[in-house]
Specification:
The complex is a heterodimer of chains A (459) and B (230).
Chain A lengths: L1 H7 L1 H68 L6 E6 L5 E4 L13 E6 L12 E8 L5 E7 L1 H53 L13 H49 L5 H32 L8 E4 H19 L2 E6 L4 E4 L1 H18 L5 E9 L2 E8 L31 H12 L2 E6 L4 E6 L6
Parallel strand pairs in A: 7-9
Antiparallel strand pairs in A: 1-2, 1-5, 3-4, 4-5, 6-8, 9-10, 10-12, 11-12
Helix pairs in contact in A: 1-3, 2-3, 4-5, 5-8, 6-7, 7-8
Chain B lengths: L6 E5 L3 H13 L3 E5 L2 H10 L4 E5 L7 H10 L6 E5 L4 H9 L4 E4 L4 H16 L6 E4 L2 E4 L4 E4 L2 E3 L3 H12 L4 E3 H8 L10 H14 L7 E4 L3 E4 L4
Parallel strand pairs in B: 1-2, 1-3, 3-4, 4-5
Antiparallel strand pairs in B: 6-7, 7-8, 8-9, 10-12, 11-12
Helix pairs in contact in B: 2-3
Chain lengths: 459, 230
């Protein structure tokens, strides 16, 4: 299964192409080496024979047949010429001199280059040595053959040839093996990812791609895919949670409305009563619509569709307007709402969204802070970075709950019965994310210090 | 509504919504023409002089915004009230920039619609030139930005004065919370709390406490109305 996948994989095909190209080049280089070595070796022996022939020709011209016979005999006792063959015959092929017993049968050509196997046994050779020689025909019909045993040379080039073939073969074999192994590894990792994907499609997002701990690029791919899966799982979980919460938060008022209408339907009409009932129903319906609007608004902010509306705005101005708007609410609650800080804190952003975020934070501080306590809004530049803090002296948020408060519809236990839909901080988080602002929640002991740190304005 | 014509063009392609609109507006004393498509709207709008034209953003043939532009190009001066299911701040801003005079998001309450139509119709009627506005024994001075009842000054914060001024300018008409947010605070969204009620509550204590009669009245389910008795 894995081997079949290995052999059909793209990596393997690419490896084969690489091996093929490389192999052809190596073969060409080694072939060239072989051919040039062989022709060099042969050329050298041929030249030596040619020189020998022409020097013997000179002897013949100078001192005739007898002189040549002497010269040939002299050559044969010469140590350095032990691998040479000489034979001089008269026109009737009678041997006049030489170390061959007879004129070789295989030589069809009257003159020029010949190659033949020496059929007779010689003292200094074993087997059937290969002789390459040159034939010269003298004017009186005498024939001279000077040759050399090239068995060694032939063996030499044959060795090279074997070596070349062996090397090429070995290269192909090793490359083939290596590519199968490498491809197999790649295919195995891809197969793991595929298997995980299939498992996820079949059973759910809780599967992860196994890591090998080799810290290589495959581990990193797997790691990133796993992170992505974790993120998707969290998002899906959140969506599920939100869907449940939406269902709950919408069902509650819808159930109230339905019950009310049902009761009214089966009761006798009563103008005053009916009007109150319809009024309450409309109010509940509005609450449902408001939740709906908040959810779509958060979704829209989260999809980052509004960056086009960004301009430079003064946080202080926005905060002042918010404080002004909530002044009455704070007064009603007995809370002292004040604003302090720098005169101008510029950020790049969307005025309405920032207003909404600050409004939500101030609203929370007043609602969840201590009755008769104080809420301070501070806008200032801290090391060139604009920041706005909203501080109350209420019960605060337990440390272990802090990361949850941004989840849609999340309500702290002690605030479950105060008005609100649990969407405020989700909106704040969405606005902060859109503006690249950092959210900080610190203990004000008592109370909570909620800070939004913006990036310095562009330009 | 004092004087002026009360003829309204409703541009709406959903027949049931159109029917409800016609019925409500006719009941409230308006004369209503209906256009079911952008082309009809262009024909009607150019042919008659309307007090207000309400227009849906999404029409079957021509986009509502394009209809507004074309009508403005042929010299139609009537204010446009955009009624749309596209409710995000961006959509509102785009609609208002394209020539809409006000924006109402579906679903809406008919009281809210009527309040807005009244305000728009009046805007095209008259532009007040007085610097002192009076309702009953309340007088507000637009120059010195002060208010008084029976000659006794009421101490108001600047925003409270703006709020009161808006209510006075719309004397006898219902103004919704959304209208207050939009015109007094320049906010095009609902902060989804009862913050406006609290704010109006404080203004009401300042204006109406220990007086002969109350001026600021709550209109259940919609908003507020400033009026003198009688």
């Amino acid at each position: 299964m894995l081997l079949a996948k290995t052999l059909t994989s793209t990596t393997f095909k690419l490896a084969l192409i690489a091996i093929g190209t490389f192999g052809v080049i190596v073969s060409a280089i080694l072939g060239y080496v072989y051919l040039s070595t062989a022709s060099y070796v042969r050329g050298r022996s041929d030249r030596a024979i040619q020189i020998e022939i022409s020097s013997l020709q000179e002897v013949y011209e100078r001192s005739g047949r007898d002189g040549l016979i002497d010269a040939v005999r002299g050559r044969m006792v010469h140590e350095g010429l032990a691998d040479h063959v000489y034979i001089l015959v008269d026109p009737s092929s009678r041997v006049l001199a030489g170390n061959l017993e007879a004129w070789p049968q295989a030589t069809a050509e009257p003159s020029g280059w010949v190659e033949f196997r020496q059929t007779s046994s010689l003292a200094n050779t074993a087997g059937w040595p290969l002789i390459r020689g040159m034939i010269e025909i003298f004017p009186d019909g005498d024939r001279l053959l000077v040759g050399q045993d090239i068995s060694d040379l032939d063996g030499y080039t044959a060795h090279i040839k074997t070596a070349v073939i062996a090397v090429v073969g070995l290269i192909f074999a090793l490359a083939g093996l290596a590519s199968v192994l490498v491809t197999r590894r790649t295919v195995a990792r891809i197969e793991q990812i595929n298997a995980t994907s299939r498992a996820i499609m079949l059973s759910g997002l809780d599967k992860r791609i196994p890591l090998r701990g080799s810290n290589d690029e495959w581990d990193r791919v797997a790691e990133n895919l796993n992170l992505m899966l974790a993120r998707i799982e969290t998002l899906m979980e959140e969506v599920k949670q939100v869907t449940n919460n939406v269902a709950h938060d919408l069902r509650t008022p819808l159930t109230r409305m339905r019950g009310r209408l049902e009761k009214a339907y089966s009761r006798e009409r009563n103008g005053e009563h009916d009007q109150a009932l319809i009024g309450d129903t409309i109010a509940d319906l509005d609450a449902v619509l408001r939740i709906f609007t908040s959810i779509t608004r958060i979704a829209q902010i989260e999809s980052q569709a509004r960056e086009g509306a960004f301009r430079t705005v003064n946080l202080v101005e926005i905060a002042t307007e918010v404080v002004e708007l909530y002044d009455a609410a704070a007064e009603q609650d007995g809370t002292r709402l004040t604003i302090v800080g720098d005169g101008e804190v510029l950020v790049t952003g969307d005025r309405d969204l920032i207003f909404d975020a600050i409004a939500n934070l101030v609203d929370n501080a007043i609602k969840h802070g201590r009755a008769g306590g104080r809420v301070v809004v501070t806008s200032e530049n801290v090391d060139g970075s604009p920041a706005i803090s909203i501080v109350d002296d209420g019960p605060g948020i337990p440390v272990d709950q802090r990361e949850h408060v941004f989840k849609r519809f999340f309500r702290l236990e002690h605030s479950r019965y105060t008005p609100g839909n649990g969407l405020g901080l989700s909106l704040v988080a969405a606005v902060a994310r859109l503006h690249g602002a950092r959210i900080e929640m610190l203990d004000n002991s008592p109370g909570l210090k909620f800070t939004l740190r913006f990036a310095a304005p562009a330009g | 509504m004092p004087g002026g014509h009360r003829r309204i063009l409703v541009v709406e392609d959903d027949l049931e919504t159109a029917g409800q609109l016609m019925e409500q507006l006719t009941t409230s004393g308006y004369e209503v023409d209906l256009a079911n498509s952008g082309n009809e709207a262009l024909n009607h709008g150019a042919a008659h002089d309307y007090a207000v034209i309400t227009i849906d953003r999404m029409l079957p043939d021509i986009d509502g915004i394009a209809v507004m532009r074309q009508l403005r190009d042929v010299g139609v001066a009537a204010p446009f009230l955009i009624i749309s299911a596209l409710g995000e701040v961006d959509d509102k801003v785009r609609g208002l920039r394209a020539g809409g005079d006000d924006y109402l998001v579906k679903p809406f309450s008919y009281l809210e619609l009527l309040a807005r139509l009244e305000a728009l119709g009046r805007r095209s009627d008259t532009i007040a030139k007085e610097t002192i506005l009076r309702v009953g024994d309340l007088a507000i001075d637009l120059i010195s930005r002060t208010a008084s009842r029976r000659g006794k000054e009421i101490l108001l914060l600047p925003r409270e004065f703006q709020l009161l001024e808006y209510l006075v300018r719309n004397e006898g008409r219902i103004v919704s919370r959304a209208m207050l947010l939009q015109h007094v605070w320049d906010l095009h969204f609902d902060p989804s709390t009862n913050i406006i009620d609290v704010y109006v509550g404080r203004l009401r204590r300042k204006v109406d406490d220990e007086q002969a009669y109350p001026l600021i009245h709550t209109v259940r389910g919609v908003g507020y109305c400033l009026r003198a008795p009688g």
